[in-house]
Here is the input.
Amino acid sequence: MTYNFGAGPCILPQEVFKQAAQAVLEFNGTGLSILEISHRSPEFEQVVDETVRLIKELLNVPEGYSVILLQGGASMQFSMVPMNLLGDGQSAAYLDTGVWATKALKEAKIVGNVDVVASSKEANYTYIPKDYQIPADSAYFHYTSNNTIYGTELFETPKTSVPVVCDMSSDIMSRVINVADFSLIYAGAQKNIGPAGVTVVIIKDSILGKIDRKLGSMLDYKVQIEGGSMYNTPPVFAIYVAMLNLRWLKSKGGIADIEKENLSKSDALYKEIDRNLLFKGTCKIEDRSRMNVCFVMENPELEKSFLKFAEDRDIIGIKGHRSVGGFRASLYNALPITSVHVLIDAMQEFEEKQRNQQTFS
Ligand SMILES: *Cc1c(COP(=O)(O)O)cnc(C)c1O
Here is the structure.
């Protein structure tokens, strides 16, 4: 048994792996592998339909929104969003809360004017800026709900009269949200939705068609919506596995139930970080992410040996991103609470070991 705390691609439920493996051999009584069936076959059209239906059902997507499945990752959305929504002479407002937000606004600047309304860069993104104004004539306001690298999360949708666009790659489906607060939500699947290779975009239909930039077909949300996520060959296997994972989430009771579990996982780990004398959190407490828990050691010289200590207990994927250092434990939906307890036990044992060494040396 391995306890994988990787930040993405990350673990999916074991039963999803098993069902996916089976479908590679033989898909749904067709006599064919999921890897060889036509994406235009009725069997696969059903997969796309069910995937979209599950996303709508789990997130309670209201009328007037389209859900599409694209390729290119969240990073492609960094470009598609301004191309489709930022008209000539307009400005888009961006909140800079980390690497992904910075990458998003860099792409928007290629398309038009960008207003960075606030940034926590000066504090290495250890908190979420709260006091800022969003100009009322902005084409849209863009933010990142969970900062995967720094371990901060924005739990309350900022109040504004302009359309809100959100990169939810690393916390979508982890807690209840009100989709109606947003005009556009996007997420690379590989954190909470499924494997890498598919990107979910949820769009309020009425925000489209307001600007007259000419776009390549693949980059045009309208073309993708009209094509029903099948304008070209979609990532068949990635969509299928995402569907299996969404079924799993539904069988667990849906998002409200998984949110409770996610909260107990992150609470338990933060509690240990705050209690254990060897470790400390890196972010402002009120902004701490439930998905990516970042922490360092009071004595950085011990970090290598704790990493080894954890690896010896089959705990993997906890090395922090190079821009933060220390450790990052990602607690996505599929990570069982038992894995969190294994990590906490390791932290306690390590503390005990250090205490004994200090006493006896
Ligand atoms: C992982 C991640 C991305 C990048 O996603 P890709 O699908 O690799 O482009 C963007 N934003 C956030 C918040 C992420 O966590």
User: Anything to note?
Assistant: The two ends are 35 Å apart (CA to CA). The chain has two domains: 14-251, 254-356. The mean pLDDT is 97.
